[in-house]
Every structure is written in structure tokens, then in C-alpha cells.
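Q&A log
Question type: sequence-to-structure
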Amino acid sequence: MLDRRRFLEGVGAAALTAAALLALASPGGLGNSPIAFIGRAEAQTVSADKLMAPGPLPDIVLGKADAPVTIVEYASMTCGHCAHFHTTTFPVLKEKYIDTGKVKLILREFPLDIVAKAAFMVARCSGDAKYYPLVSTLFETQKDWAFGNNPAQALLAVAKQSGMTEEQFNACLSDTKLAGEIDQQAKRGAELGVDATPTFFINGKKISGALSPEDLAKEVDPLLGSN
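Response status: OK
Response body:
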């Protein structure tokens, strides 16, 4: 895990002030984060009322609001298994199920480290319309920005490609309110039983671990019936 000081220094002297340090630092938070999931496991079903209750951040829904299947994903931007899902299975999910009105996807933030938290903040600051495209880009280029010697500058480069200025980037990472909301989002996930990433709730059924296209079909197709 990249330490806080290393990340902050990478943005440059003019970029992140003490306010940004406070924004990215959750009291007792990231140091106790769970590790990324290896393998798959199935567990309990969570009621729709509990799963879809308003949280600290508004859900950004990808797909039709009345889609018969709802997938809620808890992920971390620096999680390799999450990146694998988004680069291999997500395109199938989108083309076969989301674009056809059968499934809607809700991604919720569950950062495992400070760099993942910063990336989620940038995605949120980009606006609802750019959120999923930027998330996809971040997962596709994860190896380029997340694990190098200067993750802050690398993340800034990706943000600029989405149309964000350096000033907007710095202001985003200085947003203590947003940082706290992402912390609360992760806490809410833990209360729902999330202890690894990625974790999916498919119409409430909890499934931990990256889903292959075949795994996805096995879970979703029976819920669609003749749809």
C-alpha cells in the first residue's frame, strides 16, 4: 500500500494543502481496510430495503431505472481483481444486460488505500455523466497510475484526459466533505457484510470475488426468466 506522504508529495508543492491531507486521511480508516479478495465465495442475501436505503453518497445508476435486475458492486480502484472484472466482464455486462434494459449497475466506493480513495474522489468530482467512463479508464490503466513511484501525477494525467484541470483536481482532493462521505460509504458496505473487493449484490444476493462472463450469466439469467 502506498503511504499517504508518498502520495501527497507526488502532487507537487502547490497542489495539496493541509486541508487535502485531512481530506484523504480517515481517522483509523484506511490502515484497517480489508485486503482484495482472492477467489469467490457466496454468502447471505441482503433485503432490498437495506441494500438500497439512501447512503452517504447518492448512487450513480448505470442502466434503466426499472431494470428487473440490480447489481450493486463494492470495489476499490487499486484492486487487481476489480480491474480484471471491469476489463473482461464489464463490457459483456454492459452490452448484453445493461444496454438492453435488463440490468442496472450501481458502483459503490470501498477504497483499500489512499490512492484508491483519491481516484474515487476524482471520479466523483468529474460529475455523474463522466463517472463510469472515468472509472472504466482508471481500471483499464490501473497499472499505469496506481502502483508507480508517483501515483499522484499519474492520476492527474488521467484526470486531465477526462477534461479536469489541475486546479479542479487539487480542489477535488482537498474536499474534506467528499472524503468523509467516501469513508462512510465504505463503512456502510462493511455493515452490509462487505469484507473484500470486489463484492457484488445481485438482487440482494451477496457474491464475493470477480465474476467471469460465465459466472455473471449463471447468476443473472435465471432472474430474467423470459425477458
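Response note: The CA atoms of residues 42 and 207 lie 5 Å apart.
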